Amino acid sequence: MAVNEKDLDKILNRYPAKVKRSRKKHILIRDSSMGQQEIEANTRTIPGIMTNRGCAFAGCKGVVLGPLKDVVHIVHGPIGCAYYSWLTRRNKAISEDPEKNFLTYCVSTDLQESDIVFGGEKKLARMIDEVVEFFKPNAITVSATCPVGLIGDDMQTVARIAREKHGISITAYNCEGYKGVSQSAGHHIANNGLLEWMVGQGDMEEPPGKYTINILGEYNIGGDGWEVERVLKEIGYNVQAVLTGNGSYENLINAHVAELNLVQCHRSINYIADMLEKKYGTPWLKVNFIGIRATCESLRNMALYFGDEELMRKTEEVIARELAQIEPQLEPYRKICAGKTTFCFVGGSRGHHYQGLYEELGIDTMLAGYEFAHRDDYEGRDVLPCIKPDADSKNIPELHVVPDERRYRLKITAEKMAELKDRIPLGNYKGMNVTMKDGSVIVDDLNHYETEEFIEIFKPDIFSSGIKDKYIPQKMGIPSKQLHNYDYSGPYAGFKGAVNFARDISMSFTTPTWNFIDPPWKNRPMLEGTIQSCADNCSE
Amino acid sequence: MLDCTPKEIKERRGGVINPAKTCQPIGAMYAALGIHKCLPHSHGSQGCCSYHRMHLTRHFREPVMASTSSFTEGASVFGGAANLKTAIKNVFEIYNPDVMAVHTTCLSETIGDDIPSIIKSAEVPEGKLVIHANTPSYQGSHITGFSNMTKGMVNYLAQASSEAKKERVNIIPGFVDPGDMREIKRMTDLMGVKFIMFPDTSGVLDTPMTGKFVMYPSGGAKVEDITDSGNSKLTIALGFYASSDAANQLERKCKVPAVTLKTPIGIKATDEFLLTLRQNFVTEVPYQLEEERGQLVDIMTDTHYHFHGKKVAIFGDPDIIIGLTEFALSLGMKPVHVLTGTPGGTIGGSQGIFENEITGMLNEAGIEGKVKAAGDLFGLHQWIKNEPVDLLIGNTYGKYIARAEDIPFVRVGFPILDRSMHPYLPVVGYKGAMRLLELISNALLDRADRDAKDEDFELVM
């Protein structure tokens, strides 16, 4: 089942003219013969359209800062923002010292009307004092909510004074929800803060082991990060810091010693990946640990980067062993899934990265897209010079970064870099569009109306998205797989994760519960009988 | 688990740790979904709408439809009028509800958007309605938001078309699940009393699987009915915090007398509800309800030794936990810690109403307990560390305390995110009380079974 321009036009015609003009630029039908297809992304949401997007606060505190487990994250604002980001994201963490893991705590200054009128700085200062007293955290972050910018609370000064008073890292993030157009602005603001105030604060000068790396843009949802680290450790890598799944301030402050940075979620972490390269000379490699082929490719690319024979041999050995273990487990699931289709509409990364894993199960992606990605996540980083900042992105600060006086060190020579760039995605990401099949649909900021329309056309066998749209296809009898929180399952990354994913997807198809949708009396007549011919019975 | 919570209790003035409440707008969104063919609209940043839809969806496991004004920095400076007008146009053209129910957020409140005048200048199609409520998130709690939106329904819709009142009751059910709303309607029906219930989320957020997605399900209070509520003889507001404001407004506007009762959780509050209908509509309580009550009393008396004297900590929304506390006392249990995150008075009115009511109940039963409104779960946990309990009753966030202190745990209230079935089945009425009793007894007896030595492991309990 494919869609063409005419079908697309029919969908768009329902819109008021202004909306149609806008949405047209955000939807593409993939056609490889057309070369580079442009898509508009990271622009203002149309009011009333019923988007899936969230806000900058969610991107900053919820996504990037929140998973740091030995840090207390204070939310400065009325209660809601803190409450809705309390344990609602499945970034798992373990700490050796349970008293240094604060993920189960939700801390808010709970601004009241008088604070809005008279200012909330004093309350924030009090809260910071109380947090230090009760939690003795390694660091504290303070994230702003919408009213904070409007009432003019100077969080940066409150944080600075508290920092001097308590002698620990206390940093503030101006991630008011109205900034930018989506969660994306919040990622950027968080990245800036992490680089400016946390990375490099530690005393390590040399990497503690061979092949020291950081994993960026891995949030350990459902334990994804642990599964990836398991394999990396087997091969011989030493993970210094993860940004930020199961991450800690303790590890983050020495992230500068890594020889290589891996980037999983490009959208949320590309900012600090670039800045780490500028400041410390550490290149970043685009990886994808979702899907077996992608995982193997990423592992091989990493070994190629280091260029070490022993490492490459060990990589192949671990890959072979893992594959031998999971292949037989996958077979029965492949049988169940073969020939089916899916939609993959997620945040800023998974819309792309899950397509390969689905394909390995025999499931084709008919439609994919992102809530808050930018053009480079669709078209590839080559398009970056063409992207002009608009009114909404102009106000997201760009950190000006220079090589660190003491610690900048080119990890590989410029020649080696140029040679590697031809073979592996070093400092590069090709984006989602180029990997998609002709005739598939690419949608930026998919809304509810378009969801219903595209389901009607494509009739996918499974719908992969988030909680807000999950129950719409479910009501239609179409299984819906949440890819933000994995329907509370996982891990799905790496080798073992692929088997978990296959098992869960197969379960969506094979559960007998779907068979009961139509009550038996819907298809059976109430009265059954035969019609007798009149001649036999008429008393005529 | 929650290892940083100290036993020693110190006064805290910096804010909240582990909240027992959330902000107004989600309450308004929930109330608005109780109007038939209504699309709630969040006038603020799109984060609010996303978070609220997310949270309601997790509790109900149902589609929760709502739109947003998607404020950007520009709108925050110059005002959100353009965003709201565009949203109204797009919502009616693309999603075609009968009603748009706009609620504000701390953003639109702080910048002072005048919603009524924006609505007046917007393009609202013929026959369509846009109503609104002011729901600043820095005041009250989600219960206040529910109350404000319900009051908004009265403000915009309710009309008294004649002097004579109809032999009918208006019921404002409060922030309860659809299953509770169904049970209240069922009981009122059995009493033979005609009613209008608003808001009514039954048939909206507890819909069946039919193989079709219906954006505006068949449930919800019809606009004509909310309008006609001005002609009813009486309004019963169930739950002071969620419902009485709207009922009093209806009295002021349409001269429909209002009476506020407790949310009918437990035997006493259910009795009160039926008695109020009985006295006002001169109709006897039918045997069917009397039988249900008798069944409840039967099992209460027969199994009192399962729960008598057990210490219980209760937290949640004020209307719900007032009923739960009263029921716990009816069972002979000891509610020693009772806490809500919602402030305990009325906005701008006197504080302490909540504490007074609960303390009054406890005193009558001769129990010394700790009671707090505008409290948080960090504080509740500390209370429990100082005086342990045999049972914890509250929403899903209580499970961390239950695990930390190894306490049997019963999930009642909002939100329940880690179990299912609760939106479909009641905790109100006699049937609801039986269900509560089952949950409470099972939790206590499961614990007794878990801890019993082999020789003390009982076949019959």
Task: Give a quick summary of the entry.
The complex is a heterodimer of chains A (540) and B (461). Chain A is built from 22 helices and 14 strands.
Please specify the SSE layout and strand pairing.
The complex is a heterodimer of chains A (540) and B (461).
Chain A (H helix, E strand, L loop, with lengths): L4 H9 L3 H9 L1 E3 L26 H10 L5 E6 L2 H6 L22 E2 L4 H6 L2 H15 L3 E6 L1 H6 L3 H12 L2 E5 L9 H15 L14 E7 L5 H12 L2 E7 L4 H4 L7 E4 L2 H15 L3 E3 L5 H15 L2 H29 L3 E6 L3 H11 L3 E7 L4 H5 L11 H4 L19 H8 L19 E4 L3 H11 L3 E4 L1 H9 L4 E3 L11 H17 L23 H4 L3
Parallel strand pairs in A: 2-3, 2-4, 4-5, 6-7, 6-8, 8-9, 10-11, 10-13, 11-12, 13-14
Antiparallel strand pairs in A: 1-12
Helix pairs in contact in A: 3-9, 6-8, 9-12, 10-21, 13-14, 14-21
Chain B lengths: L15 E2 L6 H9 L5 E6 L2 H15 L6 E2 L4 H6 L2 H15 L3 E6 L1 H5 L4 H6 L8 E5 L8 H16 L8 E7 L5 H13 L4 E3 L25 H6 L3 E7 L1 H15 L3 E4 L5 H15 L5 H16 L8 E6 L1 H13 L3 E7 L12 H12 L5 E3 L4 H10 L4 E4 L4 H7 L3 E3 L17 H23 L10
Parallel strand pairs in B: 2-3, 2-4, 4-5, 6-7, 6-8, 8-9, 10-11, 10-13, 11-12, 13-14
Helix pairs in contact in B: 1-2, 1-7, 7-10, 12-17, 13-14
What report would you give on this structure?
The complex is a heterodimer of chains A (540) and B (461). Chain A is of the alpha/beta class. Chain A has a domain at 56-179: 3-Layer(aba) Sandwich (Rossmann fold), CATH 3.40.50. Helices cover 43% and strands 12% of the residues of chain A. Chain A is built from 22 helices and 14 strands. Chain A has helices at 5-13, 17-25, 56-65, 79-84, 113-118, 121-135, 146-151, 155-166, 183-197, 224-235, 249-252, 266-280, 292-306, 309-337, 350-360, 375-379, 391-394, 414-421, 448-458, 467-475, 494-510, 534-537; strands spanning 27-29, 71-76, 107-108, 139-144, 169-173, 212-218, 238-244, 260-263, 284-286, 341-346, 364-370, 441-444, 462-465, 480-482. Chain A has a 6-stranded mixed sheet with strand order 1-12-11-10-13-14, sandwiched between helices. In chain A, β6 (212-218), α10 and β7 (238-244) form a beta-alpha-beta unit. Chain A is globular. The termini of chain A are far apart. The model of chain A has no long low-confidence stretch (mean pLDDT 96). Chain B folds into 3 domains: 24-139, Nitrogenase molybdenum iron protein domain (Rossmann fold), CATH 3.40.50.1980; 166-284, Nitrogenase molybdenum iron protein domain (Rossmann fold, 3-Layer(aba) Sandwich), CATH 3.40.50; 290-456, Nitrogenase molybdenum iron protein domain (Rossmann fold, 3-Layer(aba) Sandwich). In chain B, the strands form 3 sheets. Chain B has a 5-stranded parallel sheet, with helices on both faces. In chain B, α8 (178-190) links the parallel β6 (166-172) and β7 (195-197). The chains are: A alpha/beta (540), B alpha/beta (461). The interface between A and B is large, with 89 and 82 residues.
